[in-house]
């Protein structure tokens, strides 16, 4: 019988962080721990390099780790930890939508809204950005907001949600929120940068709902 290949488990966030060579030891640090962050690697040098870097660099699809030696272009760099990342989730079967904002530095959820009936993902992304901007303005904060939606970024820039979604009795609340968001953009100035989350280099948006 072939010998089982040794794995090295990096725990960035758990009861105890570090590198573990035994899955049971790793599991003890992460099982039941809220927002645990960990990945397995095939060699100790990979694990040692990974633990000194940001968890989000290594996250792509569920259960898949990014190569440690991937070169990130100088113009892309690393995400700013002192920031808010936003994202939306849309259920294709029910049409329900929700959105949330996460503080990148700690992974703490700042806000969660929804589900809203009969919505779209673009609307959720748009509302999430405006929600983050309003939250930051209320807290006198100038930190940036990350989103992976170019459409939502364009809508915010134009201060108008250019949706083709039709108003229905189910999504009336959502249209009220859209109008409120557009009015907020028209009436308020902000200095916060709205930045594109570079999924290709940084992995999944930290505010992703993990339902892909």
UniProtKB/TrEMBL annotation:
Cofactor comment text: Binds 2 metal ions per subunit. Manganese or magnesium.
Keyword Cytoplasm appears in the UniProt entry: yes
Sequence ranges assigned to domain RNase H type-1 in this UniProt record: 78-212
Cofactors required: Mg(2+); Mn(2+)
An MF annotation (GO) of this entry: RNA-DNA hybrid ribonuclease activity
Subcellular localization(s) per the UniProt record: Cytoplasm
Any GO CC annotation of this UniProt entry: cytoplasm
Enzyme class: hydrolase
UniProt EC number: 3.1.26.4
Primary residence: cytoplasm
Residues at which Mg(2+) 2 binds: 125, 148
InterPro entries, A to Z: Ribosomal_bL9/RNase_H1_N, RNase_H1_N, RNase_H1_N_sf, RNase_H_bac, RNaseH-like_sf, RNaseH_domain, RNaseH_sf
Annotated Pfam families: Cauli_VI (PF01693)
Binding positions (Mg(2+) 1): 87, 208
Catalytic activity: Endonucleolytic cleavage to 5'-phosphomonoester
Domain of life: Bacteria
Alphabetized UniProt keyword annotations: Cytoplasm, Endonuclease, Hydrolase, Magnesium, Manganese, Metal-binding, Nuclease
Record's function text: Endonuclease that specifically degrades the RNA of RNA-DNA hybrids.
UniProt similarity note: Belongs to the RNase H family.
Name of this protein: Ribonuclease H
């Amino acid at each position: 019988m072939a010998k089982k290949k040794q794995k090295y488990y990096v725990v960035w966030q758990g009861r105890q962080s570090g590198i573990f060579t035994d899955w049971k030891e790793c599991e003890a640090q992460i099982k039941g721990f809220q927002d645990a962050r960990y990945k397995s690697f095939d060699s100790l040098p990979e694990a040692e390099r990974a633990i000194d870097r940001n968890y989000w660099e290594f996250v792509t699809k569920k259960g898949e780790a990014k190569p440690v030696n991937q070169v990130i272009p100088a113009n892309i760099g690393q995400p700013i930890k002192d920031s808010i990342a936003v994202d939306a989730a849309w259920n294709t079967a029910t049409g329900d939508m929700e959105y949330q904002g996460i503080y990148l530095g700690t992974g703490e959820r700042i806000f969660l809204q929804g589900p809203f009936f009969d919505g779209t993902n673009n609307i959720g992304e748009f509302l999430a950005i405006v929600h983050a901007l309003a939250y930051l303005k209320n807290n006198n904060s100038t930190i940036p907001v990350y989103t992976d939606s170019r459409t939502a970024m364009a809508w915010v820039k134009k201060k108008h949600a250019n949706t083709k979604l039709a108003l229905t009795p189910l999504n009336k609340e959502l249209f009220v929120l859209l109008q409120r968001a557009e009015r907020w953009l028209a009436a308020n100035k902000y200095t916060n940068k709205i930045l594109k989350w570079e999924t290709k280099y940084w992995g999944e948006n930290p505010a992703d709902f993990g339902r892909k």
